[in-house]
Amino acid sequence: MRLWSARRRTHIALATALLGCSVAVVSESSTASAAVGLGGRHGSCVNVRGITEQTVKYDTVGSGADGTSPPMQKVGDTAVYTDTIFGTGGSVVGKALGYVTIVAIRPSDGHLLTDYQETVQLPQGTLSDTGTRLDRNGMIGGKWLDFKASGTGGEFAGKQGYRRWRLLPPLSNPPVPSEIAQVEITLCG
């Protein structure tokens, strides 16, 4: 694989954007980042970038479920949700179904820790992802949540990787369904 300098990657990204192609960074933590070609594919990886997600249906059990206080504030509280996934042009390209449970409070800072289970459907295929002990307070502040993901159908089938998700400003506490999240997916195998 040929590795390019940061300046070269910027020029590649600009050129491909002008040509209507997609570019993704395979991994910022690898020895060096590499630009990938048409459709976001690199080797046996499938990369999905430039999509956003918004909750369209949400139901909770536990504190706040009766509407008298904010939901999802105590250990044991659980929410079930349906999210719509949008492409770069704003058109609907998929959906995510999932549930999240508050499983602990971190003693060092009092942050709520949550476990997630999701199934995602996109034009490239389907995947299942899980997140264990993810920082809910960090999520509300716009930090990335990283989910372990497994491809279950289409181009994703048999591949392993991650799905990243973060709320975009403006942020509110607790989050409201009108908020938009940025999503990145990389599955390889």
Quick synopsis:
The chain has two helices and nine strands. With 189 residues, it is mainly beta.
| Number of strand elements | 9
State the end-to-end distance.
Answer: 17 Å
What share of the residues lie within helices? Answer: 10-25%
Unreliable residue stretches: 1-39
Per DSSP, what share of the residues sits in E-state strands of 2 or more residues? Answer: over 45%
Mean pLDDT equals 81
Structural class of the helices, strands and pairings? Answer: mainly beta
Order of helices and strands: HEEEEEEHEEE
What's the Cα radius of gyration?
18 Å
* Total of DSSP H or I helical runs spanning 4+ residues: 2
Q: What order do the strands of the largest sheet run in, or round the barrel if closed?
A: 2-3-4-5-6-7-8-9
- Shape field: globular
Major sheet: size, sense and barrel closure? 8 strands, antiparallel, barrel
Which SSEs are present, and which pair or pack?
Layout: H1 6-19, E1 41-42, E2 45-61, E3 78-86, E4 92-105, E5 112-122, E6 125-135, H2 136-140, E7 145-154, E8 160-167, E9 180-188
Antiparallel strand pairs: 1-2, 2-3, 2-9, 3-4, 4-5, 5-6, 6-7, 7-8, 8-9
Keywords summarizing the entry:
mainly beta; 10% helix; disordered N terminus; 189 residues; single chain; 2 helices; eight-stranded antiparallel β-barrel
Describe this structure in words.
The chain has 189 residues and is mainly β. 10% of the residues lie in helices and 48% in strands. It has two helices and nine strands. It has helices spanning 6-19, 136-140; strands spanning 41-42, 45-61, 78-86, 92-105, 112-122, 125-135, 145-154, 160-167, 180-188. Strands 2-3-4-5-6-7-8-9 form an eight-stranded antiparallel beta barrel. Strand 3 (78-86) and strand 4 form a beta hairpin. The chain starts with 5 loop residues before the first helix and ends with a strand. 23% of the residues are buried.
